[in-house]
Amino acid sequence: MTTTQPDASAVLLVNLGTPDAPTSAAVRRYLAQFLHDRRVVDLSRWLWCPLLHGAILPLRSPRVAAQYASIWLDGRGSPLRVHSEDLAQALAARLPQRTVALAMRYGEPSIATALRPLRAAGLRRLLVLPLYPQYSHTTTATVVDAIDTELASWPRPPERHVITSYHEDDGWLDAVAASIAAAQAPAPGERLLLSFHGIPERYAARGDPYPQQCQASAQAIAARLQLPPERWRLAYQSRFGREPWLGPATLDVLRQWARQGVRRVDVACPGFAVDCLETLQEIARQYAQAFVAAGGECLRYLPALNASSVHVEALAGLIARHDAGWVE
Predict the structure, then answer these.
(1) Cα distance between residue 296 and residue 261, in whole Å
(2) CATH number for region 2-166+309-324
(3) Burial of 267 (0-12, 13-18, 19+ CB in 10 A)
């Protein structure tokens, strides 16, 4: 999706991506592209590719397709794509002098698909905003890879600047805190869990700053909400495979709280710009059921910022600040 202005500069929003249908075949295509990325899974191709195509994709695709089907928006499609498109359109309306385009790192519209119309329009300056507040080489860096691969084929590539993270941006932190407070009113849960997508521990051990940035975001959000330490916690979700991942695990924390007698919890996912499978299905359904089964009473998922006005204003401010540092 592209909203074009007669301008030689553009903002490209990039999100992770989604299958184009809630079917096993579509999910298999999407997961194959995603899990073939060496930044996402860095195992030897001799080991990983046979495992991926011989076992993981055949077994996971039907199950994941059923999960997508349970959250698919009738007449519109995948929540991640729908909310991302709504956000891009709202941001374009907020920035009428800018060209705003949207791409997905995996699936469609691809980065190449989104950039080629801008090339035809004479693009000379590109500001890339990956919709990942916290940097990781498994997310943000893969966007940079794809951008640079596409631009390398251009006879005259534009200047490009990437907003690599905004985990401590005041405007974004204020928006997240305000959204959580509004969703909790008038009766907040006994505890607030801030759940972020996990990555393998060895990635962090090699220098990926992701856990430090998640911690910084969580602490700043809790401070804005004036939460004492015993009222909130950070955790990591969406583990895959058997190797150690960042902890504590979201599901482990929820079960522990339930065993301790906590009856009502709220869960927010500040690492996700818009709602998607990991929030709507994993947290709001799977983990909510697990919390009740462990003895809890109610898990309330607090929605992502999506295309809310506070999110649009936060991103508009972020873009303006990066524009101000870009020398003409």
Answers:
(1) 7
(2) 3.40.50.1400
(3) buried
Cα dihedral value 20, 24, 25, 28, nearest 10:
80
In the chain, the largest separation of any two C-alpha atoms, in whole Å, equals 64
CA-CA distance, 11 to 126, in Å (whole number)? Answer: 6
Let me know if the fold of 2-166+309-324 is the same as that of 170-301: yes
Segment 233-280, tens digit of pLDDT:
999 999 988 899 999 999 999 999 999 999 999 999 999 999 999 999
pLDDT tens by residue, 39-93: 999 988 898 999 999 999 999 999 999 999 999 998 899 999 999 999 999 999 9
Task: Say how far apart CA 234 and CA 134 lie, in whole Å.
Answer: 14
Domain 170-301 has CATH 3.40.50.1400: yes
What DSSP assignment string belongs to 62-128?
A: HHHHHHHHHH-BTTTB-HHHHHHHHHHHHHHHH-TTSEEEEEEEESSSBHHHHHHHHHHTT--EEEE
Listed residue (295, 269, 284) closest to 70, CA to CA: 284
pLDDT tens track for 5-42? 445 899 999 999 999 999 999 999 999 999 999 999 99
Query: Would you state the pLDDT for residue 328?
Result: 55
Closest Cα to residue 139, out of 253, 17, 2, 265?
A: 17
E runs forming strands in the chain = 2-3, 9-17, 99-106, 125-130, 159-162, 191-197, 232-237, 264-268, 298-301
pTM over 0.85: yes
